């Protein structure tokens, strides 16, 4: 079958804001009531509250019947393009792979959902076993010695890495001196931002002409102040840094620790590991490489691993096994404390466990091999389009993703990355630019993962090709896009204006009255 | 026997040999290995990952995971009185229906066009929380209450340009660990005593400790012990007199009946939304909210995404976008406010569904039901010989401390005996609040029937007498 671009239109319900649907007196659910006997015994319950603490006016929530609430949210869901519905290769760095439905079903079992985190250990052996065994799996995948699932996302895992680094230097009584963290501009923004929360000064390494973090710049940046390095590899460019072991050696010689941001490790499972590259800490996003769904932006897990030397600093509790039973270990001598409540997003861990169990060792490697194959196929095809380039490492292959540039197309036609993004929507695709700052001009970052067939990748390419043709022949249709999406060109001028912005409906009503 | 090695896994379409060969040819390499040319030999993993044999049939996988999960005993099988940071409430079916929709469950970071639904749902969530809280700005949710409190505190420090924080010594021990780690070496945290009789904040101690260096006072209402703090107005006034901010943690489920913190002086309000239609999931269901007034000095200090409503070029059509994006670390890396990343958006959408279902009457009635049921439980437990309810003279919401010191039994003993009777007793707080001896924090919500409570009371009686 010849690949064609779809004659697409996204669902458009023109659905009002929920407050506009309110009819006084309607209700969506009846919650459990109080028994008559209890009421007789204690009265109305409210009169016990000190007078100044009783709410006089009920909150102005909307009033809707149950089916209307359902319909409202179903319509909003249809106005949202999940990975299950599109060829979601346009959100590079985020590993938008297939999240198997069986794993969702398993995680929705009351045997997980109805567990309270403070239950007696004897009643939660099943979930503790899942947590412990997933730790064992990730040890194999990374070569490190112990994992925790407490961080509720990659950025919180980065905060935890910075906290571990701080605790380590504190233990060595060097905390005052070691006050700088080094990262790279093609690592995630949180690799710079989260350690700054801990009071670190941030030094950012820029790429050399090959697109790799400049090792000479690293050498210059390193000093007695260096507390650690937080870095991804491959970076957002998809180029693997072959000198990574030299990076970690340089940092270690300066007395620093090395943290590996493996939020996305989708191209290297079973191929290369944290351990061989000399990292002390790493984390994997279970909602990326390990298939837990992204949930519109969480719930999520940044699974955090360390070498044996650093276990004593980990957040509490750790999940352990004594040969007979699984248990929570709070006895961690120099623990940083906690970064998130309880033990993390357990559903994401269960989904990752199931995903790994479905694939095994060879399957995981095949995931990475397919992801890399797909990416390089996509690279080859994208570069055949007019006006696009893949800066750096010319002629080299990439790992799991590529950061492209539309600079030439913008010069030729005036059509920008943002315009292309908006036009791709008209064909049922999502396309993402890149993290700021745009070091690569007019960027686009694509990551096809292992989940999409050749036919689907071809379809995405056909979409890009169509938009490129339009850009050269009829740029206005691209610049005025989207035309077939849920809504039309958005007026963003109010979003930075305190007198106009509105983060809630009540704020909007107040401001639009004026 | 068919060679298993060549089986194409259902999650990896391009493992089909013919397709793979075609793609390899198209790229112009001899095999996939060649694509890894940039990874040097010395970094290659030469061993084998020691993972179990895969369960590639979906049925086998299901059997395996269900068999492990079957070892759990849940709060549906036992009567549960545990709270203390994670709470068992009723989850309406529609909450699960919506958050399991593929469109929401598998979306991530689309643009406000193709992901209009996500933006609108989260804007509506913030809007309904705004009504509950009587505040005009509410964030796209963060990880949990601990993170929300930590960020609220850091926001206060930036707004006032001060670095000392006061908070009561009665706070969730886990939350305190989170706050301490988040603020360590940057802020100083000093704890205020509680009145030993009422359990409320000791105003004199607060007056003694506050100074011109205090950035803010953080306290919770209801407190960790479930006590309704009725001195909020005085506390906020003391903070404001010293140029500090009033930061208040609140349980949103209580706000149908309790005055929202904004009305007694709160500048920043935070808390957890797990109670709003999200299953406990062994602590996996948390999400944190932060709310403020709509003033630039507050808005500018949020690290979170804030989704604003605006218009499109088509008359009458709403559109959405990020408010003040450049303040985030997405916009400005380490120059941004703290950091932002994937947190708990799906729980925000879910909590919105929950609030829309309950409506004003529902949330008020829910609060009242919890008050009545918890008061009934407190009354009946207090009648048991040897067992006391601490701070009984103060009003409580949902949670209360049961004192076992006069029974000669530890909380551990009591909970073990309860467990044998199919009951999860209160959270043992003896080791975290050692001054109080053998005490447990019990939680009663709308899900408890009179019979559940009576069974607990009888079991406690049998256990201590």
Please tell me the CATH architecture of the domain at 144-356 in chain A by its name.
3-Layer(aba) Sandwich
Unreliable spans of chain A are none
Main sheet properties of chain A? 7 strands, mixed
Overall morphology of chain B: globular
Strand elements of chain B, count: 15
The main sheet of chain B orders its strands as 2-8-7-6-5-3-4
For the record, what is the CATH homologous superfamily label of the domain at 144-356 in chain A? Answer: Type I PLP-dependent aspartate aminotransferase-like (Major domain)
CATH-defined topology of the domain at 144-356 in chain A: Aspartate Aminotransferase, domain 2
What is the H-and-E element order of chain A? HHHHHEHEHEHEHEHEEEEHEHHEHHH
Beta strand % of chain A:
5-15%
Q: What is the distance, rounded to the nearest whole angstrom, between the alpha carbons of the first and last residues of chain A?
A: 57 Å
**DSSP strand (E) fraction of chain B?**
5-15%
> Can you tell me the number of structural domains of chain B?
2
Q: Write down the Rg of chain A.
A: 26 Å
Major beta sheet, strand line-up of chain A: 1-7-6-5-4-2-3
Alpha plus pi helix count of chain B: 14
> How would you state the average pLDDT of chain B, rounded?
97
Count of separate DSSP helical elements of chain A: 16
Shape of chain A: globular
Q: Quaternary status of these chains?
A: heterodimer
- Helix percentage range of chain A: 25-40%
Outline of the structure:
A seven-stranded mixed beta sheet of chain A has the order 1-7-6-5-4-2-3, with helices on both faces. A two-stranded antiparallel sheet of chain A has the order 8-9. Chain A has a two-stranded antiparallel sheet with strand order 10-11. Chain A is built from 16 helices and eleven strands.
Structure write-up:
The complex is a heterodimer of chains A (514) and B (465). With 514 residues, chain A is α/β, with parallel strands linked by helices. Chain A is built from 16 helices and 11 strands. In chain A, strands 1-7-6-5-4-2-3 form a 7-stranded mixed β-sheet, sandwiched between helices. In chain A, strands 8-9 form a two-stranded antiparallel sheet. A two-stranded antiparallel ribbon of chain A has the order 10-11. In chain A, strand 4, helix 9 and strand 5 form a beta-alpha-beta unit. In chain A, helix 3 runs antiparallel to helix 11, helix 5 (125-142) packs parallel to helix 11 and helix 11 (346-382) crosses helix 14. The model of chain A has no long low-confidence stretch (mean pLDDT 97). Chain B is α/β, with parallel strands linked by helices and 465 residues long. Chain B has helices spanning 17-27, 58-69, 93-99, 102-105, 116-133, 145-160, 173-183, 203-209, 232-241, 296-299, 329-332, 345-382, 411-420, 450-464, and strands at residues 79-80, 137-138, 164-168, 188-192, 214-221, 245-250, 268-272, 288-292, 307-311, 318-322, 388-389, 399-403, 423-424, 427-428, 439-443. A 7-stranded mixed β-sheet of chain B has the order 2-8-7-6-5-3-4, sandwiched between helices. A 4-stranded antiparallel β-sheet of chain B has the order 11-12-15-14, with helices on one face. The termini of chain B are far apart. Chains A and B meet through helix 1, helix 2, helix 3, helix 4 and helix 5 of A and helix 1, helix 2, helix 3, helix 4 and helix 5 of B.
């Amino acid at each position: 079958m010849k690949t064609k671009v779809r004659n697409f239109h996204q669902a458009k319900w023109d659905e009002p804001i929920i407050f506009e649907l309110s009819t006084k007196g309607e209700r969506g659910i009846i919650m459990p009531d109080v028994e008559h006997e209890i009421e007789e015994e204690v009265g109305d319950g409210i009169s016990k509250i000190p007078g100044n603490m009783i709410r006089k006016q009920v909150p102005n929530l909307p009033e809707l019947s149950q089916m209307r609430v359902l319909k409202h949210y179903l319509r909003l869901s249809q106005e949202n393009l999940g990975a299950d519905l599109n060829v979601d290769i346009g959100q590079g760095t985020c590993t938008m792979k297939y999240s198997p439905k069986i794993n969702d079903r398993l995680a929705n079992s009351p045997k997980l959902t109805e567990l309270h985190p403070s239950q007696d250990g004897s009643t939660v052996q099943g979930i503790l076993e899942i947590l412990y065994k997933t730790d064992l799996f990730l040890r194999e995948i990374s070569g490190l010695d112990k994992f925790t699932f407490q961080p509720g996302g990659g950025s919180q895992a980065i905060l935890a890495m910075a906290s571990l680094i701080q605790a380590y230097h504190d233990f060595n009584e060097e905390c005052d001196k070691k006050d700088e963290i080094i990262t790279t501009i093609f690592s995630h923004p949180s690799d710079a931002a989260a350690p700054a929360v801990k009071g670190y000064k941030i030094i950012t390494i820029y790429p050399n002409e090959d697109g790799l973090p400049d090792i000479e710049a690293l050498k210059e940046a390193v000093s007695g102040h260096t507390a650690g390095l937080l870095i991804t590899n491959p970076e957002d460019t998809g180029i693997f840094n072959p000198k990574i072991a030299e990076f970690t050696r340089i940092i270690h010689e300066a007395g620093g620790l090395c943290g590996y941001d493996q939020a996305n490790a989708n191209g290297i499972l079973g191929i290369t590991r944290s351990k061989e590259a000399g990292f002390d800490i790493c984390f994997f996003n279970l909602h990326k490489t390990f298939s837990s769904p992204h949930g519109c932006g969480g719930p999520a897990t940044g699974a955090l691993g360390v070498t044996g030397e650093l276990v004593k600093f980990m957040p509490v509790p750790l999940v352990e096994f004594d040969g007979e039973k699984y248990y929570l270990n709070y006895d961690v001598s120099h623990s940083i404390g906690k970064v998130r409540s309880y033990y993390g997003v357990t559903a994401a861990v269960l989904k990752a466990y199931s995903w790994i169990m479905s694939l095994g060792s060879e399957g995981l490697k095949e995931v990475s091999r397919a992801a890399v194959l797909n990416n390089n196929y996509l690279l080859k095809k994208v570069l055949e389009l007019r006006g696009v380039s893949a800066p750096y490492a010319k002629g080299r292959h990439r790992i799991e993703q590529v950061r492209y540039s539309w600079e030439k197309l913008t010069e030729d036609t005036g059509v920008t990355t943002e315009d292309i993004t908006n036009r791709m929507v008209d064909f049922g695709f999502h396309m993402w630019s890149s993290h700021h700052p745009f070091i690569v001009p007019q960027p686009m970052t694509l990551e096809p993962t292992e989940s999409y067939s050749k036919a689907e990748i071809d379809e995405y390419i056909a979409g890009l090709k169509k938009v490129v043709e339009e850009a050269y022949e009829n740029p206005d249709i691209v610049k005025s896009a989207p035309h077939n999406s849920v809504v039309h060109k958005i007026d963003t001028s109010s979003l930075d204006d305190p007198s106009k912005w509105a983060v809630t409906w009540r704020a909007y009503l107040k401001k639009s009255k004026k | 026997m068919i060679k298993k090695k060549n089986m194409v896994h259902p999650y990896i379409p391009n493992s089909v040999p013919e397709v793979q060969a075609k793609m390899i040819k198209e790229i112009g390499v001899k095999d996939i290995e060649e694509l890894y040319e940039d990874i040097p030999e010395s970094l290659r993993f030469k061993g084998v990952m020691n993972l179990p044999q895969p369960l590639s049939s979906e049925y086998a996988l299901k059997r395996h995971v269900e068999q492990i999960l079957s070892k759990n005993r849940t709060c549906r099988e036992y009567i549960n009185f545990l709270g203390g940071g994670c709470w068992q409430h009723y989850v309406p079916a529609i909450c699960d229906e919506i958050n399991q929709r593929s469109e929401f469950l598998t979306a991530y970071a689309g643009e406000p066009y193709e992901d209009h639904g996500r933006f609108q749902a989260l804007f509506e969530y913030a809007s309904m929380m705004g009504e509950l809280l009587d505040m005009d700005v509410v964030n796209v949710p963060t990880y949990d209450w601990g993170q929300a409190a930590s960020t609220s505190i850091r926001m206060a420090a930036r707004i006032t340009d001060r670095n000392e924080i006061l908070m009561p010594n009665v706070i969730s021990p886990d939350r305190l660990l989170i706050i301490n780690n988040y603020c360590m070496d940057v802020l100083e945290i000093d704890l205020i005593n509680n009145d030993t009789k009422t359990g409320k904040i000791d105003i004199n101690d607060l007056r003694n400790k506050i100074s011109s260096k205090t950035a803010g006072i953080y306290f919770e209402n209801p407190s960790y012990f479930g006590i309704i703090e009725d001195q909020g107005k005085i506390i906020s006034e003391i903070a404001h007199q010293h140029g500090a901010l009033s930061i208040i943690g609140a349980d949103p489920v209580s706000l149908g009946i309790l005055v929202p913190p904004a009305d007694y002086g709160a500048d920043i309000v935070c808390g957890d939304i797990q109670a709003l239609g999200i299953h406990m999931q062994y602590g996996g269901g948390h999400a944190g909210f932060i709310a403020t007034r709509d003033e630039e000095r507050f808005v500018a200090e949020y690290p979170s995404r804030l989704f604003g409503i605006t218009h499109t070029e088509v008359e009458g059509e709403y559109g959405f976008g990020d408010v003040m994006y450049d303040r985030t670390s997405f916009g400005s890396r380490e120059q941004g406010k703290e950091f932002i990343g994937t947190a708990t958006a799906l729980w925000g959408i879910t909590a919105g569904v929950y609030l829309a279902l309950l409506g004003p009457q529902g949330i008020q009635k829910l609060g009242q039901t919890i008050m009545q049921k918890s008061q009934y439980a407190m009354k009946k437990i207090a009648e048991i010989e040897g067992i006391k309810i601490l701070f009984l003279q103060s009003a409580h919401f949902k949670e209360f401390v049961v004192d076992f010191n006069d029974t000669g039994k530890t909380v551990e003993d009591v909970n073990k005996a309860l467990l044998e009777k199919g009951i999860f007793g209160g959270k043992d707080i003896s080791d975290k609040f050692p001054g109080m001896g053998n005490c447990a924090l019990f939680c009663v919500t709308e899900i408890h029937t009179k019979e559940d409570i009576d069974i607990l009371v009888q079991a406690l009686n049998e256990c201590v007498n």
